[in-house]
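Many introductory courses stop at the sequence. We go one step further.
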Amino acid sequence: MTFETLRLDIDGVDTVIKAIGQGPAVVALHGAATIEGHEWARHLANRFRVYLPFHPGFGESGPAPHICGMQDLIVHNLRLVAALWLDRPHLVGHSMGGWMAAEMAVVAGDRFARLVRKAPAGLNHPDHRGADPRSVDPQDLPQYFAHHAEIAAQYFPGGALAPPLEQFVAAREREGNALGQIMKAHGMGHPNLRRWLSRIPNETLLLWGDKDRIAPASQAEVWAKEIPNARIHIVPGVGHFAMQEDSDCVTTIGDFLAG
């Protein structure tokens, strides 16, 4: 089964979406970079039709100079879902994409079915702080993204799944600029996000690796306390790239979405 490439104009932004599989629709939102790719979605493709959009300025999507905060991404993605003619798709978000999914569900939860948030960013709770990848030496990043550093190392320069060095560096610079636009308003989160979470009506799965150094798994209880229909699934022995370290994580997501 191969990935299809879809291209849509969303309010003047050239938006590229990878899609794979057949079945109920799932929209999956990536994190603050596209380093680890989207191969994990193959493990859902036998049960679901998975749509994996690149955020504006990330991956294969075009830039969006107007973006000055997460709220612009929320509007962009809600219009993207409408342009794809999706009727109450499931919504999955990893890291920054998990924060994005939360805000989408806060304002438009009735437009989605179930919600999965894998090690979401956004709350910035002072008692549960993780490492900021921007402050980590580049050669040490794999051991921050995965408990088994060799898994993450595949995606970094010199790794079997990494692009050539110049291409990798150019992509990180471009995506770093796009991330800076998103963080312009409130940084990596919104100061009032915790106050809003009770508005999320969706059955929600919070999935976390217990060795996550970017977003500590101790945050899960904080999120679950505020989201009315949330459940927690902690995966032992994996880090922030949990789905790449253990494909059973994707099976767990699929089982939850299947209800």
